[in-house]
Every structure is written in C-alpha cells, then in structure tokens.
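Bench log, entry 3. Co-assembly request; chain sequences pasted below exactly as received.
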Amino acid sequence: SYELTQPPSVSVSPGQTASITCSGDKLGDKYACWYQQKPGQSPVLVIYQDSKRPSGIPERFSGSNSGNTATLTISGTQAMDEADYYCQAWDEGVVFGGGTKLTVL
Amino acid sequence: EVQLVESGGVVVQPGGSLRLSCAASGFTFDDYAMHWVRQAPGKGLEWVSLISWDGGSTYYADSVKGRFTISRDNSKNSLYLQMNSLRAEDTALYYCAKDMGLRGSYGDAFDIWGQGTMVTVSS
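Structure output for the full assembly:
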C-alpha cells in the first residue's frame, strides 16, 4: 500500500521560514494537500492541488510538489502556526502522512 | 453557514455494531463526494471511507473493509457509517469531511470537516 512519510517534528523561530516535507513514491505525479490541526480542533485545509491556498488561508503558507517530495513552507512563521500538519494524497484511496508537529520557539 | 455535524458515537463492546450519522448544511450536498476519517487518541489522521456524490462508488481502507459500510441519503443531506464487528483498535474520533471535487472528481482534498463523534470500543 502507498505510504507518505513526514518528519515527526520540526522547530522554527518566530519570523523564520518553516519547511515540512512529505515523501512518497512518485508523489510529484499526484496532487498533494496539507492540513493544519491545532489541539482539540478539527483539521483545516491550508494547501490543495500542491500549491493552491483556500480562501482565508494566509499568504505565508505555500506548497510545492516534485519528484518524490511535497513541501509545505510557512514564511514568517507566527506563534499561531504551532500545530500538527498532515499531508494527503490519493492512491487507490486517500492516504495521509503520519503528521508533523511544528513547534515555534 | 457550511457545516457538518456528526452524531452517534458511544461506548460499545467489542464485536458490537454502531451507526454514525453526519448532517450537512450550507452547500449542495449531492454535488460532492463525502468521506469518513478517524483519529485515535493522540494519533494521526486515518482515512476510513469515501462515497461518491451519487452513492454509486464507495472505497474503504483495508483496516475496515468488510466490516464498515458507508452510505448517504441525498434527500436528507446526510452521510452514514455502519460499523460492525467493532474492535478495540476502532476506538477513535470519527470525522465526516466534504471532498472539494465536484461530482465525478474526488480524493484530492477535504475542505470542510465536522467536529467529530467519539467511538470507544471497550468491555
């Protein structure tokens, strides 16, 4: 079965750029999306179709997808961005990555 | 307001059955595929099942195939998940989620999520 691999944790200083990767076999041939989930809340879509932002998502969130890796980039990271982030793709069913805990310190 | 509201989660014994419901409002329900996604306590997201806009196509995760059945009633703007032969590892918060794709397109992303309903399988 298809697997998506994310680093368990990423740390970033406020105002700096955070990058979270998601790896899967030929992931660049599929669409990837990203969700943000804060404690006690439902997931929120922040990037879809590799690099598109839904309405209401700040411009500091961006995405890319090529080869075997999709990347979520948060520029000028703020304390409010501290959350778990999940990548997702489709391969004969929906597949989620294991999630990455982003710490802003 | 676009909204999904899940219900039906309870404590159930191993081997038992349960039906979850999800009431949709604020969008044209029968234009979109719908999904169930679960999250065990302290764990990540796990996709459970998908049903196409018209109910004609369904997909399941291997972990629930043969035990769970997804269905929808477009006249009632409602999504369901029939869960049979429940196991301890089915214990999770179950979310329903709306697919972004219109009609025949699905699987790329979920743009609306409910608040979830908790299912606990324990004796």
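The CA atoms of residues 43 and 92 of chain B lie 9 Å apart. The interface with chain A takes residues 35, 37, 44-47, 50, 59-62, 95, 100, 107-111, 113-116 of chain B (CB under 8 Å).
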